[in-house]
Amino acid sequence: MSGTQYFYLAKKEENPEADAAREEARSRFLRMRSGDIGGIVWGGASWYRKPFRDEGLIRHKADKLIFFIGSDPKDAENLHATFKLRIENDLLTLTHTCVVFIPAGVAHGELSADRVDKPVLCCSSLIGTGDCGEEAAEATAPAGTYAGQAVERYEPTDGKLPGAPEGFLTLLLWLDGRKLPGAPYVEAVWFNQTNDTGPAPHEHEFDEFIGFIGSDPAHPEELNAEVQFHIGGDAVTVTKSCLVYIPRGVRHSPILVPRMERPIIHFSGGVGGDYKRVGSESDTNAFRLG
């Protein structure tokens, strides 16, 4: 079976029932659901371009991750925007590139943007399920319980950083269960230029999701680059923004970038608290992404 079975490519998302003001503020372009790939990770991605406000709180039966990533790779930690997100009785104010971890069953919502000076990429993932399955919720936890759920910067708890050719990576985010108890492993980086090397072929004992996202909010489906990704014995070339679902035990990598017109955002995450490889050609930390 072709390795393309694991890929979900970007396409324009249209929802005639969606709130008009919300749709004007964002470009929703990527969705991975149960049945699309058959995996256990639900995900979606949007570019936000204007201020907006959502009402009400929801909850999910699965853990949730939300990435907020600024669109300027030369000022990567700056959102150039102010977002607010309520988790139970804590209001998070987000002005820097970050990932937010929301445990299963926790009330959250009222997402808003007071200002958006430059577009912001927002990617959401539910870990351990292929269905969104949201329901209305009320805040019950004491204030302060979830005030620290936003993690900024690429600071692994083991202190190790990925090796890569000079100039190829801008490191953005790292999260695992040692940084926030109960959180899965996730990381995010910018790919800034072409590259003919990558992580050694390996596999994981957890299901993994990977994203390759183009940096042109006006044409969010386009990667404006060519990425070659090896998975399950096949080399798959993509030129569209995409999400990839990799079941545990499926061998994958390297990631090669033979062509690039604009930098792209790459992120990965897994159903598990810590990052571990199985069957890698090397136990060193050289280019451990994915």
Would you mind describing this structure in some detail?
The protein is built from 1 helix and 21 strands. By secondary structure, the protein is mainly beta. A hairpin with a 2-residue loop joins strand 7 and strand 8. The protein is globular. The protein has one domain (3-270): Jelly Rolls, CATH 2.60.120.
Question: Would you spell out the secondary-structure blueprint of this structure?
Answer:
Blueprint: E1 7-9, H1 20-25, E2 26-32, E3 41-48, E4 52-53, E5 57-59, E6 63-70, E7 78-87, E8 90-96, E9 98-102, E10 108-116, E11 120-127, E12 135-136, E13 150-152, E14 169-175, E15 186-191, E16 208-214, E17 222-231, E18 234-240, E19 242-246, E20 252-260, E21 264-270
Antiparallel strand pairs: 1-19, 2-3, 3-11, 4-10, 5-10, 5-12, 6-9, 6-11, 7-8, 7-10, 9-13, 14-15, 15-21, 16-19, 16-21, 17-18, 17-20
Oligomer status:
single chain
What integer value in Å does the Rg equal? Answer: 18 Å
User: What fraction, in percent, of the residue positions are helical?
Assistant: under 10%
What is the structural class?
mainly beta
The SSE order reads EHEEEEEEEEEEEEEEEEEEEE
- Tell me the β content: over 45%
CATH fold naming: Jelly Rolls
Number of domains: 1
Strand order of the largest sheet: 1-19-16-21-15-14
Assign the CATH class: Mainly Beta
Low-confidence segments, given as residue ranges, are 281-287
Query: What's the shape?
Result: globular
Tally of extended strands?
A: 21
Q: Which architecture per CATH?
A: Sandwich
Helix count, DSSP H or I runs of 4 or more residues: 1
Determine the mean pLDDT.
Answer: 84
Assign the CATH superfamily: Jelly Rolls
Largest sheet: 6 strands, antiparallel
Distance between the termini: 22 Å
